[in-house]
Write a structure and sequence with these properties.
This protein has about 325 residues and is mainly alpha-helical. It has helices at about 5-10, 30-50, 55-70, 75-100, 105-120, 125-140, 145-155, 160, 165-180, 185-200, 215-230, 235-245, 250-265, 270-280, 280-285, 295-310, 315-330. Among the domains are: about 1-20 and about 25-105; about 240-330. Helix 9 (about 165-180) runs parallel beside helix 11, helix 11 (about 215-230) packs antiparallel against helix 12 and helix 12 packs antiparallel against helix 13.
Length: about 325
């Protein structure tokens, strides 16, 4: 099944599965696992362009439903385990979409299910993915100590011992959580661990498509977040410029987020005109797609800081008018 057909089929109820007659050989095998994983790749392409939204979440849940249905069809134990793993990955994708759309209640439920399925599939990669997402969700919900705990849980998964790229992401996520609590030294130390681990990683090794976003550019984007939150706005601006110089063009949502972070760093240095010019670039970057909830929240943070730091300036009023217009349109 090609990707277009998969995505079309995934937005409606999964077709009923016919149970084979007694004594028939297993009808599910490696080819089914491969096809379902290709569907995951297609969903990740959608996420890179426009971020989390209802259609992506529904498609991911449909993929998980199909994987779970197939694991009941008399496949070997090895294939059944792999299908549990695929179902876990689809469910984690749905949870991530809910997080990006800032639908915390749904995200929490889906992450719990994804963690269960990852255990059934004995898949440490999905387990690490889930804990990484838990850290992001905990931040959204204001549970900052839990965000640190989730980052530490991600660090202890088996995949981080085997692949330093995953270890780097886990340390970077923990750094962000520490910075939110104002733990300056812990945040900087976690960033150093992330950089050290990334230096040991082979970026060309085959990995699941969901982690394709992570590498030197994304670490710089995460560094910008940490530095801004611990009061190092100039260092945050420098890190944002490095990130934007390296984030691939197809990662539109990530480029837009990094642009908004750059605007915040400039604003926190009182460079109001430049900050407003930078923040306005987010809208054309996301042209043609609704702005995901997580990005809306970040732009809201920018606007609140803008009217706090420069409430009476013409540029602030003009940007506010533009912001409200774009907000209502998208």
């Amino acid at each position: 099944m090609d990707r277009r057909n998969f995505l079309s089929a995934a937005t409606v109820t999964t077709a009923s599965v016919v149970v084979p007659f007694a004594g028939a050989p297993p009808r599910v095998g490696t080819s089914d696992v491969i096809r379902l994983r290709q569907g995951l790749d297609a969903l990740m392409e959608m996420d890179r362009s426009r971020g989390g939204h209802d259609g992506l979440e529904r498609a991911a849940l449909s993929g998980a439903e199909e994987a779970l249905a197939k694991q009941k069809l008399g496949a070997t134990q090895r294939i059944r385990q792999r299908l549990f793993s695929v179902a876990a990955d689809y469910t984690a994708t749905a949870a991530w979409s809910a997080i990006d759309a800032r639908q915390g209640g749904r995200a929490a439920t889906l992450l719990g299910k994804a963690l269960y399925l990852a255990g059934m599939g004995q898949d440490p990669v999905v387990e690490m993915r889930v804990w990484n997402s838990y850290a992001m969700l905990a931040f959204q919900q204001g549970e900052h100590h839990e965000a640190v705990d989730a980052g530490l849980a991600a660090q202890t998964t088996a995949i981080t011992k085997r692949d330093p790229l995953f270890a780097s992401l886990a340390h970077a996520r923990t750094a962000i959580s520490h910075s939110t609590l104002g733990h300056r030294q812990a945040a900087i130390r976690s960033l150093e661990y992330a950089q050290e681990a990334l230096g040991k990683a082979s970026l060309d090794d085959p990995r699941p498509s969901w982690i394709a976003f992570y590498g030197p550019a994304e670490l710089m984007a995460m560094t910008a977040i940490v530095r801004d939150r611990i009061g190092d706005a100039a260092e945050s601006e420098a890190a944002s410029h490095k990130a934007l110089g390296a984030i691939p063009e197809e990662f539109r949502r990530n480029r837009a987020l990094a642009t908004a972070r750059l605007a915040l760093a400039q604003l926190h240095q009182r460079d109001v005109d430049q900050a407003c010019s930078t923040a306005s670039m987010v809208f054309p970057l996301m042209s043609g797609h609704p702005i995901p909830g997580r990005m809306r929240s970040l732009l809201g943070d920018y606007y609140r800081d803008l009217i706090t730091l420069a409430p009476d300036t013409t540029i602030a009023r003009e940007w506010g008018d533009r912001y409200r217009t774009e907000w209502s349109r998208l």
